[in-house]
Amino acid sequence: MPTYRDEGVVLRTHQLGEADRIVTLLTREHGKVRAVARGVRRTSSRFGGRLEPFMVADLQLAVGRSLDIVTQAVTLGSYAPVIVSDYRAYTAATAMVETADRLTDEDGSRQQYLLLVGALRSLARSEHDPSLTLDSYLLRALSIAGWAPSFGDCAVTGEPGPHRAFVPQLGGMVADHSAPPGSLRIDATTLGLLSALLTGDWAAAEASHEGVRNRASGAVSAYVQWHLERGLRSLEHVDRGQP
User: Fold this and answer.
1) 46 in Cβ contact with 69 (< 8 Å)
2) In 3D, which of 214, 235, 213 has the Cα closest to residue 224?
3) What is the number of alpha carbons within 13 Å of residue 26 lying toward its C-beta?
4) Residue of 25, 48, 20, 49 lying closest to 36 (CA atoms)
5) CA distance 145 to 103
6) Is the peptide bond before 162 cis (omega within 30 degrees of 0)?
7) DSSP letter at 184?
């Protein structure tokens, strides 16, 4: 049975039989992989907690007919214990891994892998407010997938901004004459935060106020839900409250 080695982050797990577990992984080089971790639910399992959601591991896998088999796992990033102990971080991380699951396939994307691992690491280290980290991740993940929002020039005509109408189905900010009736209006301060989250300007993002963050989160959620069609089930459970 041929084997291969890769880094992977655990997106989700499902129980299989009495002791096994199916793990869905986003790997660095092999895209999204579904594999069986045998005996992982036994207390004597050599895998321990290495194959829980939000964990990053160096993996050895054997190629199977329908599912690969995890034969070795060495922890690279033990983010799960810290994240699950903080409800706001946990809800943000859950939305992140669901997004990664939806945006990737077997062909994968190293950029999506590195982005997700970096976002989970940031959550575990409490580098930024969880809501800001999530919104930045969502905007960047969609951009990598080919749906980069326009926060400057009109997404329809290319007219120089700033504009005030935000239309997710048209790609972001649009000029007034291109905006459908009832389009969401975004003020300059909120627009500045959205741009900072997309570009990684954390000094500007951290300086924003609660009301601005809430408005930006609403715009990000609308953009994500539109482009992912079925929407993210976990996004509605995200705790956006300020600490």
Assistant:
1) no
2) 235
3) 26
4) 20
5) 7
6) yes
7) E
Report the candidate in 147, 169, 146, 150 with the shortest Cα–Cα distance to residue 161.
150
Q: In 10 A of CB 22, how many CB atoms?
A: 15
Would you say 104 and 112 are in contact if contact means Cβ atoms under 8 Å apart? yes
Residues near 146 by Cβ (< 8 Å), separated by ≥ 6? none
Coil vs helix vs strand at 96: helix
Q: How far apart are the first and last CA of the chain?
A: 51
Cα of 84 vs its chain's centroid, Å: 16
- Residue 14 CB neighbours (<10 A): 10
- The structure tokens listed for 30 are 């092999």
Nearest 5°: the CA angle 62, 63, 66 is: 130
Query: Exposed/middle/buried for 73, CB within 10 Å: 0-12, 13-18, 19+?
Result: buried
pTM: 0.93
**Rounded-to-integer distance, Cα 119 and Cα 213, Å:** 18
**Residue 57's closest CA among 140, 14, 113?**
113
pLDDT of 43-53, one tens digit each?
666 677 889 99
With CA atoms as reference, report the closest residue to 9 among 75, 91, 106, 99.
75
pLDDT tier at 41, thresholds 50, 70, 90: confident
Query: Please, which pLDDT band fits residue 130 given cuts at 50, 70 and 90?
Result: very high
